[in-house]
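Box 3.1 — From sequence to structure: Histidine triad (HIT) family protein
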Amino acid sequence: MNEIGCTFCRIGSEDPWDQVFYSDDHSVAFLDLAPATLGHSLVIPRRHSADIFSVGEAEFAAVGRAVHRVARRLEDRLHPDGLSIFQSNRAAGWQDVFHLHVHLLPRYVGDGLTPPWTETSEQVNEISGLAASLR
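Predicted structure (token representation):
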């Protein structure tokens, strides 16, 4: 963790705000300083990588294992009613800190959070054609 000017690299290496609560050889988890819910956490890789397109499968799998461990810890300690997990890439994908990260938001009945998108009414044949192009 050494990308100059990267806030997440700084948190992962220095923990300046005492928010890190999990780390392993590949990943670090910390509480969000502007939480959407109680326990809102982020998991990042130790190596600075801008987004999912900048890491290999093994490195992303290591982040995924940390996400699972953090999810279990949030469940055991905070007892939320649910859990939402988000991972965004690039500005158009709502990424605002350009160090790969996964948000874990413990959810509570009545927490007021709503999905950030609305459903579209795609026709079945359009979806089928898109699926075919992705195969």
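Summary of the box: The radius of gyration is 17 Å.
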